[in-house]
Structure formats: C-alpha cells, structure tokens
Amino acid sequence: MEIQVGDIGHIIQLSVAPVFLLTGVGTNLMVLTNRLGRITDRSRVLEDRLRTTDPVHHPDLNAELITLYPRAHLINRAITLSTACALMVSLVIISLFLGDALNLGLSKFVAAFFILAMLCLVASFLVLLREILAATSSLYTRRIEPIARP
Predict the structure, then answer these.
(1) Average pLDDT value over all residues in the chain
(2) Is residue 42 situated within a structural domain?
(3) Is residue 70 part of a domain?
(4) Which end of the chain has fewer CB atoms surrounding its CB within 10 Å, N or C?
C-alpha cells in the first residue's frame, strides 16, 4: 500500500484541530501541577512549623493543614481527568491517521474518543472550580489577627 504526499497532507489537516486541543490540555495540566506544587509546599511549611513552634499555635496550623489535604486531593483528581483527556485526544489523532491512511471506518471510534475527551476535560474544569472555591472559602473562615503596632 502506497500513501501519496497529498494523502499525508490531508491526514495532517484532519489532525490539526485535535493537536490544538492537546496543547490546551497541556496548558491546563501545567496550571494544575503548579497549584498542586503550591499546596504541597505550603503543607510542608506548616508541618515544619508544627515541629518547631509552641504547641499553643498548633490548632491554627492544624486547621490550615486540614483545609490543604482535601484541596490536594481535588487537584489530583483534576490532573487525572486532564491526563485522561489528553490520552483520548491522542487516540483521536491516531484514529484519524489510521482511518484515513488505511481506509478504515473509524469514525465511530473517533467520535467516541472525542466525546470522552470532552467529558474528561469538563469534569477536570469542574473539579478545579471546586478546589478554587475550597481555597477561597478557607480564606474567609480563617481568623485574622490584627498586627500589633510598636
């Protein structure tokens, strides 16, 4: 079986849109991993403070840690969903190439992978929104003590 240069050009044209989607999902993954890194760093700082500070301050530190753990879990879930989306988009690209190059009827697979990818992406965004709401609600419930003036 020979594939002509024009056929390869057509195959590449078919896969351009999913490749752009893959770039967006990669950017989303970068945002999510940055948020997870910040949560992890803050947790480590608080855990170090628990070991070195006066036990009087432990309830406040523990309260903040308690808000960070569920947030990390939510971000992990969002990362998993975004990664699943990226895998599905990659399967769309592969299916487009194989279907066009080998004259296979893979349109149902392409549609199914694309729908699954979009569902994963939407779910990832919803979980990210939930994590953001958890982060901002913990700011409003945290007690702020006034700064002592000299």
Answers:
(1) 86
(2) yes
(3) yes
(4) C
Per-residue tokens: 106? 């893979």
Nearest to 115 by CA among 91, 133, 139: 91
Pair of tokens at residue 59: 């309830």
The CA distances from residue 36 to 29, 60, 78, 134, 143, in Å, are 10, 22, 10, 14, 24
Q: What global pTM score does this model have?
A: 0.80
Residue 139: what residue type?
Answer: L
Burial of 115 (0-12, 13-18, 19+ CB in 10 A): exposed
Q: How far apart are the first and last CA of the chain?
A: 84
The reply to whether 53 falls in a domain is: yes
Q: Is residue 104 part of a domain?
A: yes
pLDDT of residue 5 exceeding 70, the answer is no
Question: In terms of residue numbers, what domain contains 134?
Answer: 5-141
Tokens of 70: 């569920």
Alpha helices in the chain (DSSP H): 5-52, 58-101, 107-141
Query: What average pLDDT does this structure show over 12-28?
Result: 84
The count of structural domains within the chain is 1
Q: Is 10's pLDDT higher than 80?
A: no
